[in-house]
TrEMBL record:
Name recorded for this polypeptide: Methionine aminopeptidase
Name of the gene this protein is made from: map
GO molecular function, one term: metal ion binding
Reactions performed catalytically: Release of N-terminal amino acids, preferentially methionine, from peptides and arylamides
Short name of any one Pfam family annotated for the protein: Peptidase_M24
Binding site for a divalent metal cation 2: 105, 168, 201, 232
Similarity-based family: Belongs to the peptidase M24A family. Methionine aminopeptidase type 1 subfamily.
Domain Peptidase M24: residue ranges: 11-239
Length: 250
């Protein structure tokens, strides 16, 4: 169901977003060669508990962990593990915070030590692509405008856009209508309305866009071993620039 959130619901989501932003900022400091994503998962569980919040992903459709930790050629839904991160890796940490029923969802790709130039460019283009999508996300625009802006930019930069996973409406549950593809045609699709809360979360690949599923039935990875980056924000549609619930720069 597509809902438009009340002021009170948005305030609750913002409170969850504030915790999520703090948590991502702590993770940014922790990410170094030698740390494991299982340690980051444990940190997030503890951090959220200390803030009176819960990790919404844990137990969601049977997903076993607080975070998704997607390494290099993993596109999304990577499992945290005991293997140490090494210099040159890129790692996407995705999490959803639930505070008193308010949800916020944000993924961020981090460089581990020194990442090569192409990897850094992949990260930079993916983050910029997210913000190109956000520029289109306002009342009166259509869902296709978001995807078109992201796809056009990412492909001009020589990268490809994952098709098999999309952004989504969020609240009261994690995945609500509508789907928000990161590719598409301008002026097509549902018209955005004030008070809708959505995620935009482009997954951009250095090689082919196609994905394949791991044995664990969760983790998607590229078919050509090329790396994949992802940045995700939760945002509220308004008449003007959207309110970014998970903004790290406020
Ligand atoms: N945070 C992810 C998203 O952006 C959801 C991961 S699926 C889960 O939609 F099962 F891990 F929660
Ligand atoms: Co997410």
């Amino acid at each position: 169901m597509i809902t438009r959130k009340s002021k009170r619901e948005i305030e609750k989501m913002q409170a969850a977003g504030d915790i999520l932003v703090k948590c991502h900022k702590e993770i940014a400091k922790m990410i170094k060669p030698g740390i494991t994503t299982m340690e980051i998962d444990a940190f997030v569980e503890k951090f959220l508990e200390e803030h009176g919040a819960t990790p919404e992903q844990k137990g969601y459709s049977g997903y076993p962990y607080a975070i998704c930790a997607s390494l290099n050629d993993e596109i999304c839904h990577g499992f945290p593990r005991d293997e140490k991160l090494i210099d040159g890796d890129i790692i996407t940490i995705d999490m959803v915070v639930n505070l008193d029923g308010g949800l916020a969802d944000s993924a961020w790709t981090y460089a581990v030590g020194n990442v090569d130039e192409k990897g850094l460019r992949l990260m930079d283009v993916t983050k910029t692509a997210l913000y190109k999508g956000i520029e289109q996300a306002r009342a009166g625009k259509r869902i296709g405008d978001i995807g078109h802006a992201i796809q056009t930019y990412a492909e001009e930069e020589g990268f490809s856009v994952v098709r098999d996973f999309t952004g989504h409406g969020i609240g009261p549950t994690l995945h609500e209508e509508p789907h928000i593809p990161h590719f598409g045609l301008p002026n097509k699709g549902l018209r955005l309305k004030e008070g809708m809360v959505i995620t935009i979360e482009p997954m951009i690949n250095e090689g082919d866009w196609q994905s394949q599923m791991d044995q664990n039935n969760w983790t998607a990875r590229t078919i050509d071993k090329g790396r994949s980056a992802q940045y995700e924000h939760t945002l509220v549609i308004t008449k003007d620039a959207p309110l970014i619930i998970t903004d790290q720069d406020k």
